[in-house]
Amino acid sequence: MTRQFCSKSTAAFALLVGLTVPLGGCAINKLRTDYASTVGSAAIDAHDGAQHFLGRVERERQETNIDLAVADPACAQIHSILRNTPDIRVNRPDIGFLCVVGDDNSNRLGYALSSIPITDDLEPTLKLLDALAAYGNGLSSIIDGKHDDAAKPLLDALDLAHAAQDALNAVVPDSPNALPSTSDARVVAAANLINFLGELLQEANDVKKLRSYVLAHPDGVQSIIEPLRRQIGSWERARKGDAGLRLIVVAAEARRTLDLRPLASAQVRRTALEKFYAQQALAHKEAQIEPALIALLDAVVAADADLRRVLKDHPNLSQSERAQVGALNRTRIIIGLGHLTALAKALRGV
Question: Given this model, what pLDDT does residue 19 score?
Answer without folding.
Answer: 46
